[in-house]
């Protein structure tokens, strides 16, 4: 009789444990122990957020292009006269992929720098900002 009572008790305990999860009996334990599982439920966000652009980007591009050698700058425009400059919209064959993404912006910046006094104004605006720090 004691063996039978022992087996019945063990079966009752195991049955209670087996049915506890489907009935929600382990919710508190699961919530505390399995926080890592909940990380996979949401998309991953990285801090700080990746910046794809910033407010001063055109100014920085103008400054970089204005400081570049003439040979480099001439890759982005066609000069048909002293004051006539056309941007080259499509990069030449063999251009690296990361350059292809920036090519149209570089060409537009170089074309804009060839307008009267733009290059000088860009340099002066950066100098004024540097004096603030």
TrEMBL record:
Its main location: membrane. It is found in: Cell membrane. Residues 78-100 are annotated as: Disordered. It comes from the Eukaryota. Residues 1-20 form the signal peptide. One of its GO terms (cellular component) is plasma membrane. InterPro entries: Trypano_VSG_B_N_dom. It is a lipid-anchor; GPI-anchor. Residues 10-129 form the Trypanosome variant surface glycoprotein B-type N-terminal domain. Keywords: Cell membrane, Glycoprotein, GPI-anchor, Lipoprotein, Membrane, Signal. VSG forms a coat on the surface of the parasite. The trypanosome evades the immune response of the host by expressing a series of antigenically distinct VSGs from an estimated 1000 VSG genes. This is Trypanosomal VSG domain containing protein, putative. It comes from Trypanosoma equiperdum.
């Amino acid at each position: 009789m004691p063996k039978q009572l022992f087996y019945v008790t063990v079966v009752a305990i195991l049955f209670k444990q087996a049915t506890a999860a489907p009935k929600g009996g382990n919710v508190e334990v699961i919530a505390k122990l399995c926080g890592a599982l909940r990380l996979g439920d949401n998309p991953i966000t990285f801090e700080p957020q990746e910046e794809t652009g910033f407010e001063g980007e055109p100014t920085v591009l103008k400054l970089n292009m204005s400081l570049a050698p003439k040979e480099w700058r001439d890759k982005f425009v066609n000069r048909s006269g002293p004051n006539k400059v056309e941007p080259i919209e499509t990069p030449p064959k063999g251009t690296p992929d990361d350059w292809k993404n920036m090519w149209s912006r570089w060409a537009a910046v170089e074309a804009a720098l060839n307008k009267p006094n733009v290059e000088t104004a860009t340099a002066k605006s950066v100098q004024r900002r540097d004096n603030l720090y």
